[in-house]
Amino acid sequence: VVFIMAPLITLTTDFGERSPYVAVMKGVVLSLNADARILDLSHLIPPQDVRSGNYFLATAVPYYPPGTVHVAVVDPGVGTQRGILLAEVAGQFVLAPDNGVLTGLFERHPPTTVRRLTEAKYWRPTVSATFHGRDIFAPVAAHLSLDPRPALFGVPVMEWVRLPGEPYRVEGERVVGSIQAIDHFGNLISNIPAAAVPSAPSSVTVGGRDVPLCWVRTYGEAAAGELVGLVSSDGSLEIAIVNGSAAARLDIEAGAAVAVEL
Amino acid sequence: VVFIMAPLITLTTDFGERSPYVAVMKGVVLSLNADARILDLSHLIPPQDVRSGNYFLATAVPYYPPGTVHVAVVDPGVGTQRGILLAEVAGQFVLAPDNGVLTGLFERHPPTTVRRLTEAKYWRPTVSATFHGRDIFAPVAAHLSLDPRPALFGVPVMEWVRLPGEPYRVEGERVVGSIQAIDHFGNLISNIPAAAVPSAPSSVTVGGRDVPLCWVRTYGEAAAGELVGLVSSDGSLEIAIVNGSAAARLDIEAGAAVAVEL
Amino acid sequence: VVFIMAPLITLTTDFGERSPYVAVMKGVVLSLNADARILDLSHLIPPQDVRSGNYFLATAVPYYPPGTVHVAVVDPGVGTQRGILLAEVAGQFVLAPDNGVLTGLFERHPPTTVRRLTEAKYWRPTVSATFHGRDIFAPVAAHLSLDPRPALFGVPVMEWVRLPGEPYRVEGERVVGSIQAIDHFGNLISNIPAAAVPSAPSSVTVGGRDVPLCWVRTYGEAAAGELVGLVSSDGSLEIAIVNGSAAARLDIEAGAAVAVEL
Q1: Angle at the Cα of B80 (from B77 to B81), degrees rounded to 5?
Q2: Do C218 and B129 touch (CB under 8 A)?
Q3: Phi, psi of B71 (to 5 degrees)
Q4: d(CA A234, CA A239)
Q5: N or C: which end of chain B has fewer CB within 10 A?
């Protein structure tokens, strides 16, 4: 007996679950490859928020096995001249609009090849101007899962859109960065690596406001409701409220400035 | 080597994800057919909103391959005398309460047969009055995935509940319809086919209010925040705000009237 | 042809869907066992709400087939000295933090064995202080799905954390209990078994407030907007508003007291 594993196709979108768009994409994939295994990563990327999608993909994709096909549709430019990329990253495949949503992933794992989709014979016969998820992404993902040769689908490109960088920087005794993501718990995940903050800082400001923090290893080391600083699970400086939402209490949105005095 | 594909069972409900109801249904299916492939379509149909469920199914189901078993539970009449239908539509199977939730799907794809479930031997031994998703829909879907003969499960019927039609109509130079759905982005999807509006209209009213629109092919052709009219991905007239929510800005709910002056 | 079923791993968390945490866990599982079938039960357990997770698992897990691996991460104590349990319950496996989240499940189905995870060789090489879902739960679930011998992963324990009991009690003609869960519809599910209320009560108070109820078998027996009492799908006393939210109308949260006069 040889067990043939069904190919894995993941979906990451800003489509929500209330509308039929995700269900439609799944149907298109399964109509072309009834055997595909479809895995939802998230459909709650905030609408049109390329930066959030970028953070999500850079964080999640590296954990997947080679051969996985990731489909990412956060695509405010759908139907315009923006291209659609098919990248090979650490043996995986990623389909995404060429709008910068792969910036962080490509920084962590430089792609082996990046192609721009050109071969319309793998698309649905009629391509709408507003739903390339259904008409291009889903059928290409299905065909790729059946025949994993990216060269079939497009031509190599050397240039693609990158999100403007907002790296952290060290200014003497001060480290300056920003909140790159706010998680479901309201925890504030900065872009400052923990390694840049070797000891408990003397002060931290977030969004221009001084925030007194108790420095802990994990949430349970402080009392419920306490404001804490810690190392996030991806190794960056995180600000949280134990059993509460730091984002709500401090009224902070993604992109807010963070400054740390060593 | 012969690869035996696991049968595909999709779930569409208004149960949300916070409550254990969907998880219970999945467990019931898998206890009867451990090999079933379960696919979530949506669990965020608004509570008891048969009209939203109807729009969702009419839009999504046609994209699935023959043999798929769709389970749709938006069922305010659970436990009353309303029947449960098992329909064959384009080679697929659909289980849904007989409350009109299949009206739009049946209009697009007239069913080959429609049955009313009668054979209680395929149900759970005890049927509650409030959770037929667990006690009838899930076990019938599982048995059907093992033995796809609908005649086992019920008797043919020629009558079923239809939602009162609200078709669009043309009145001289005016086309009148309604908003049939509001998507996750807040885009307003009307029931007026784009073909009924051959050129950019001189004016559009939504919910009795004049709405000045910029006519575009896709969102990215106008600036963020602009109110646009376009052809939706299913070919009907759509009103949207670029990178924003038209439903929120115009304070419109599904069912609102739309009038277009040609 | 022998069909080899992929092992089933379910996920129940309070991680939401907006953050990449669930996607990361799925990637870790699939990187160790590319063949695992991953099933989402819920990621909307309210943040850090062990009592809600407890209700969810006690309700859902019993419906699954033997051999299923359930991963439950509602874990405010992550990274502290709290243990992680691997329990065998009705032929299934459950991984959960030792914080009481399995109390109700163990009451309904006393576990065959309960172990505490000790064998770090099945964990990720570096274990963070804040994301054991990724670093311990996911890899142990994957390894367990490949080799279902729980003894590999930890040592038997005889003691574990139990949530303080809040059983209902009968006081003469009065039955007193509490709202153990509020579902997605806003229905109030009490911990009072229907059997303890043999006939329609003369009065019901919820949260200290007298609530006039119409007693019905199912929602559709009363008019939309009416406040009804009925037997919930798991056999307990439930208070609901037909096509509406009793929790919102009565302003009730989980844990509220319920008193029934027979």
Answers
A1: 115
A2: yes
A3: -115, 120
A4: 13
A5: N
Smallest Cα distance from B222 to chain A, Å: 10
Question: Is residue A132 predicted with pLDDT exceeding 70?
Answer: yes
Owner of token pair 């990637």: C27
User: Would you tell me which residues 126-145 of chain B have a C-beta closer than 8 angstroms to some C-beta of chain C?
Assistant: 128-131, 134
* Nearest-Cα residue of chain B relative to residue C45: B18
The Cα angle at residue B60 between residues B55 and B64, in degrees rounded to 5: 150
Chain B residues within 8 A of A35 when measuring between CB atoms: 3, 5
**Identity of the residue in B34, B47, B134 whose CB atom sits nearest the CB atom of C233:** B134
Please tell me which of the candidates B43, B63, B231 has its beta carbon nearest to residue A24: B63
**Bridge partners (DSSP) listed for residue C243:** none
Interface predicted TM-score (ipTM) of this complex, two decimals:
0.96
Q: Given B5, B59, B184, which is nearest A16 (Cβ)?
A: B184
Across the interface, whether the CB atoms of A47 and B181 are under 8 A apart is answered no
Quick one: which of C75, C15, C35, A72 has its CA closest to C25?
Answer: C15
Most C CBs within 10 A among A10, A39, A216, A219, hence the mutation to make, goes to A219
DSSP-assigned letter for residue C106 = H
What is the C-alpha separation between C70 and C40, in angstroms, rounded? 10
Question: Is A64–C27 a contact, with Cβ atoms under 8 angstroms apart?
Answer: yes
- Residue A118: what residue type? T
pTM above 0.80, yes or no: yes
Put simply, the answer to whether C40 touches A40 (Cβ < 8 Å) is yes
Across the interface, do C79 and A217 touch by the CB < 8 Å criterion? yes
Among A167, A166, A185, which Cα is nearest to A232's? A185
B15: contact with A, CB 8 A cutoff: no
How does pLDDT run across C109-119, given as a tens digit for each residue?
999 999 999 99
Q: What is the pLDDT of residues A55-95, one digit of tens each?
A: 999 999 999 999 999 999 999 999 999 999 999 999 999 99
Interchain pair C184, B17: CB under 8 A: yes
SS3 for chain B is CCCCCCCEEEEEECCCCCCCHHHHHHHHHHHHCCCCEEEEEECCCCCCCHHHHHHHHHHHHHHCCCCCEEEEECCCCCCCCCCEEEEEECCEEEEEECCCCCHHHHHHCCCCEEEEECCHHHCCCCCCCCCHHHHHHHHHHHHHHHCCCHHHCEEECCCCCCCCCCCCEEECCEEEEEEEEECCCCCEEEEEEHHHCCCCCCEEEECCEECCCEECCCHHHCCCCCEEEEECCCCEEEEEECCECHHHHHCCCCCCEEEEEC
Span A234-245, pLDDT tens digits: 999 999 999 999
Edge-first strand order for the sheet with B92-97 is B37-42, B8-13, B69-73, B92-97, B84-89, B113-117, B154-156
Say which of A17, A31, A80 has its CB closest to residue B218. A80
Residues 219-238 of C with CB under 8 A from B: 219-221, 230-233, 238
Say how far apart CA A1 and CA C2 lie, in whole Å.
Answer: 6
Token digits for C98? Answer: 């030792």
Amino acid, single-letter form, for residue A151: A
User: How far apart (Å, rounded) are the C-alpha atoms in residues A183 and B222?
Assistant: 31
